[in-house]
Design goal:
This protein is of the alpha+beta class. Helices cover 36% and strands 20% of the residues. The chain has a four-stranded antiparallel sheet. The longest helix has 13 residues. It holds the Pfam family AsnC_trans_reg.
């Protein structure tokens, strides 16, 4: 299915206001409530809308420190990559893990209370990941820009 301009407007609004009522959404995208509801259901069924979530405030949850960790593995065998990916997915402090092309094999986005807490995460979890040859951590000083909205 290809997206038309109305589908794109629906996706733009829902990315920024996931709790908007169908009545308000239909008004914003200039559709009847029933037509808007059908389109949203179709966008969900076809996988354009994966889920609805609440975005939480990391500071209020006492994890304001963001650390990006570059990891190089000892090799590239499928078994090693699979073992690493299964293990890293079990670490609750890791928000994202990306397989990379470039100098590192993976980049992780980790949240922590502070540097001491990151030291604990590093010692208890990251150093125990299978196949790690090298690790480099970079602390974010300030988040300049952050969004979850994809360009549609």
């Amino acid at each position: 299915m290809s997206l038309d301009s109305t589908d794109r407007r629906i996706l733009e609004v829902l990315q920024r206001q996931g709790r908007i009522s169908n009545a308000d959404l239909s008004e914003r995208v200039n559709l009847s409530a029933s037509a808007c509801h059908r389109r949203v259901q179709r966008l969900e069924a076809e996988g354009y809308i994966k889920d609805y979530v609440a975005l939480l405030d990391a500071r209020k949850l006492s994890v304001p420190t963001t650390v990006f960790v570059e990891i190089t593995l000892q090799g590239q065998a499928d078994e090693l990559l699979d073992a690493f990916e299964r293990a890293v997915a079990r670490i609750p402090d890791v928000l994202e893990c990306h397989l990379m092309a470039g100098s590192a094999d993976y980049i992780l986005k980790v949240v922590a209370e502070n540097t001491d807490d990151f030291a604990r995460i590093h010692r208890q979890h990251l150093t125990r990941l299978p196949g790690v040859a090298q690790m480099q951590s970079s602390f974010a000083l300030r988040t300049v820009f952050k969004t979850t909205a994809l360009p549609v």
